[in-house]
Amino acid sequence: MSTRQKRYFLTEEEIPTQWYNIQADMKNKPLPPIHPATKQPLKPEDLFPVFAEELCRQELDQENAWIDIPEEVRDMYKYYRSTPLVRAYGLEEALGTPAHIYFKNESVSPVGSHKLNSALAQAYYCKKQGVTNITTETGAGQWGAALSYAAKVFGLEAAVYQVKISYNQKPYRRSIMQTYGAQVTPSPSMSTKAGRKILTEDPNNQGSLGTAISEAIELAMSTPNCKYTLGSVLSHVTLHQTIIGLEAEKQMAKAGEYPDIVIGCFGGGSNFGGVAFPFMRHNILDGKTTRFVAAEPASCPKLTRGVFQYDFGDVAGYTPLLPMYTLGHNFMPANIHAGGLRYHGAGVIVSQLLKDKLMEAVDIPQLETFDAGTLFAKAEGIIPAPESCHAIAAAIREAQKCKETGEEKVILFNLSGHGLIDMAAYDQYLSGSLQNFEVTDADVAKNISELEKVI
Ligand SMILES: *Cc1c(COP(=O)(O)O)cnc(C)c1O
Predict the structure, then answer these.
(1) What is the residue with the minimal CA distance to atom 1 of ligand 1?
(2) Which atom, in ligand 1's list, is nearest to the CA of 238?
(3) Does residue 413's CB lie within 6 angstroms of at least one atom of ligand 1?
(4) What strands lie across the sheet with 410-415, from one edge to the other?
(5) Which of 79, 299, 355, 414 sees the fewest Cβ atoms within 10 Å?
């Protein structure tokens, strides 16, 4: 056995006590979200009917770089944090690369993904404000599971709209949410105006994050003492996820290294921003030259093939208009297994950073992601979530480039979750029936042309 150190942890005292708000350090700030009715830039008060007030303030805060993590949230973080930073010697050997590959293992959270980092914060701020019920949407079920548990921790009732295709294909995720005590409804449903409209026009609609978000927001706005919560896309969600990168920064220092490349898979941008922004601050402030790579599915390529434009975050148009890279809010992504990456748009911070070339994006076909995930599982023992397989695939591409050039680059990627509840997807891959999905230029153009009418 080798005596090489593989895992790096932090002591309880070393766990960060603040989140990092990159908006404060960005030279070009994100453009403001716009109120869909008045067409004026949004103020925090405009969001109060939907979200907990503290979250609204965090959402639009472009001044404070550091936000204190409430003690109640820190206490809960200590149940599973720090998460390990792992040197992936096994993967390096399997690839024969001179690169040093590290991953931050967020799959060790009780619910199996990074999502709990923000769910705990959001549930806490709702509770503090006297809210009794929270509602949300979920795709593959990771966010719904995190939120359901966080609601239980802080004594709130949770109602979750789950994308219908996932509700049917991933029944265990529904059982997990129900085990934590949440009420779960497949979306689109007949329980909201938005859901009824979608089903009237398209009775077989299998749902998307966009339809589920519309339904959850409608429920929050029409129910007293009920707030909506979101698992990605919004700036306050990414803020909470910076605990990942802030820990990783200290752990990399313990390993005596600093990353040349930081990689995250990309749904709405929260785990990518979470691992990347704390390092990006050194590019912005201290002249570091780390590359940041977001890995998205080829079948939902908003960063690589979408347009930068104001668009709604949901299908019904209940959300503010957000300046973002988007495929159009009516874009219906193929039913890939990485359900958490099936979203039409990107968060406003990441969108501005991509526009300003402070980060890059790659899109990866489904089969390549499972090739990568399977190789990783054999080399490191952890079965990755289909979403996380995108980050692994991007890391492998970079490690292979290092093999060609002989460069000993330091690569860090975020393992956003494990795939133990996604074995049906691995089953399909192993039996050879998994396929790639192409998005045609005509498809992208059609959905985007409908946007012109929005603003
Ligand atoms: C939800 C999810 C993602 C994608 O969401 P982001 O907000 O882009 O991070 C990635 N990985 C896992 C495991 C997820 O559950």
Answers:
(1) 340
(2) 7
(3) no
(4) 7-8, 85-87, 100-105, 410-415, 261-265, 291-297, 360-364
(5) 79
Atom 3 (ligand 1) nearest CA: 340
Position of tokens 């190789």?
A: 375
369 close to ligand 1 (CB < 6 Angstrom):
no
Residue tagged 């920064």 (tokens)? 249
In the beta sheet, which residues pair with residue 34? 41, 321
**Token pair 């129900």 is at which residue?**
178
Taking the C-alpha atoms of residue 294 and residue 261, their distance in angstroms, rounded to an integer, is: 11
Half-sphere exposure of 210 (CA within 13 A, CB side): 23
237 CA closest ligand 1 atom index:
7
For ligand 1, the distance from its centroid to the CA atom of residue 336, given in whole angstroms, is 14
* 3-state SS class at 387: coil
What distance in Å separates the CA atoms of residue 323 and residue 153, rounded to the nearest whole number? 34
Ligand 1 pocket check for 144: Cβ under 6 Å = no
Is the CA virtual torsion 241, 243, 246, 249 positive or negative? negative
pLDDT tens, N- to C-terminus, the chain (455 residues): 567 889 999 999 999 999 999 999 999 999 999 998 899 999 999 999 999 999 999 999 999 999 999 999 999 999 999 999 999 999 999 999 999 999 999 999 999 999 999 999 999 999 999 999 999 999 889 999 999 999 999 999 999 999 998 899 888 999 999 999 999 999 999 999 999 999 999 999 999 888 899 999 999 999 999 999 999 999 999 999 999 999 999 999 999 999 999 999 999 999 999 999 999 999 999 999 999 999 999 999 999 999 999 999 988 888 999 999 999 999 988 888 888 898 899 999 999 999 999 999 999 999 999 999 999 999 999 999 999 999 999 999 999 999 999 999 999 999 999 999 999 999 999 999 999 998 999 999 999 998 876 66
Q: Which atom of ligand 1 is nearest to the CA of 112?
A: 13
